[in-house]
Amino acid sequence: MSKLYVVGIGPxxxxxxxxxxxxxxxxxxxxxxxxxxxxxxxxxFPQKEFFTTAxxxxxxxxxxxxxxxxxxxxVAMVCSGDGGVYGMSGLAEELAPAYPGVEVETVPGVSAMxxxxxxxxxxxxxxxxxISLSDLLTPWETIEKRLRAAAQADFVICIxxxxxxxxxDHLKRACDVVLEFASPETVCGIARNIGRxxxxxxxxxxxxxxxxxxxxxxxxFIGNSQTKNIGGKMVTPRGYRHE
Amino acid sequence: MSKLYVVGIGPxxxxxxxxxxxxxxxxxxxxxxxxxxxxxxxxxFPQKEFFTTAxxxxxxxxxxxxxxxxxxxxVAMVCSGDGGVYGMSGLAEELAPAYPGVEVETVPGVSAMxxxxxxxxxxxxxxxxxISLSDLLTPWETIEKRLRAAAQADFVICIxxxxxxxxxDHLKRACDVVLEFASPETVCGIARNIGRxxxxxxxxxxxxxxxxxxxxxxxxFIGNSQTKNIGGKMVTPRGYRHE
Lengths: 243, 243
Fold this sequence. Notes:
2 copies of one chain form a homodimer.
Chain A: E1 2-8, H1 19-27, E2 30-34, H2 35-41, E3 49-53, H3 58-70, E4 75-79, H4 89-95, E5 102-107, H5 112-120, E6 121-122, E7 128-132, H6 140-152, E8 156-160, H7 170-178, E9 187-192, E10 200-205, H8 206-209, E11 218-222, E12 228-230, E13 233-235
Parallel strand pairs in A: 1-4, 1-5, 2-3, 2-4, 6-13, 7-8
Antiparallel strand pairs in A: 8-11, 9-10, 9-11, 12-13
């Protein structure tokens, strides 16, 4: 039984990788993945064989990695954050049955919701929903329906893929849906370039978030009705009494 | 400026801790936290000072840790998983303003939703909601409202604190809410003792989950309408075409 390891490398800096992720990369013959993520780990493993593919070639990338594993190679496919959240773990599990003798194992990592929350303060201390605004694979109607349900039930909302070159107004449209239920004063935050050069955070109201610029390196947090700005940190109380 | 570090140690085994978490514990004078979590890291740092408190003493625990930091000690408060998800980060941020000169920094870790998803397969590949069934700090009506909203909008649902000695029927009641919208055949999974002695996973239908026994070391996953059982793995397709 050979294995394809789907390795979450966390937000991008070496320090936020788990020891298990490092050990898995060290033990691998081939490190595969989307070019940008492979380049984040390459300096630490210069002696490895690398297999990189461009964006949007997910199916080909995973098939190639499974084929290498079927040949007996020890293959580690890297994903930013965690491979199990909008990453490659699902596709690897879906495609694996066509490669008998290959098993998929996900090595979890620190997803952007966690690393972004950490630098913003503590926005995810209570129930939350995670929603991607990318409509490449999901109809926008489904995304809106989920935003509406999350806002109506007062979830904190963590947004992945808030915008791209082709989807400049998605965050604005998402804010409009949330504003049907939430106050324009709701505390929100954006974490950018988490764990990388240029890391930054900014807090703002939901009304301001509607006008904010984001990019593919931004993770967006919309507070619930209890979320506070405490000295510049975004904090959702769990409900402990402490007066 | 002294710091209180809230350190997520992941599911419990040393390998799933990030390097940054390890470095933070190594650099600390005092390791504080709930006894069970402190005992998980104590063997690796036998030379440290330890400060443990029992369950339900969260406010006292965090105040004591902040007071030690205010005295100039380098304090690391450990949480299982990630301190920013039902952990101590929020309370630390709420209480910190009373300790001038002390700043709180969260060192993120692999939360049970990620480590549990990894051993089950890939259940969180699409939009998901994270809900705790503990009604110690949250009215049950709020929990039900969020379960209902999440089920109605076809989120995958990850459930923390599915039961306790005092709340034996919470998971059953939660399943009944989800069953208002979801098929009894919905693919579900339970991850137990993740990264620890006795780690196990089991897949079942939503109808079966309603009758399942869980404990405080269980994390429960309810699939969305697309989630599949692929050879014993729980997999939610993202939507890539691959025929």
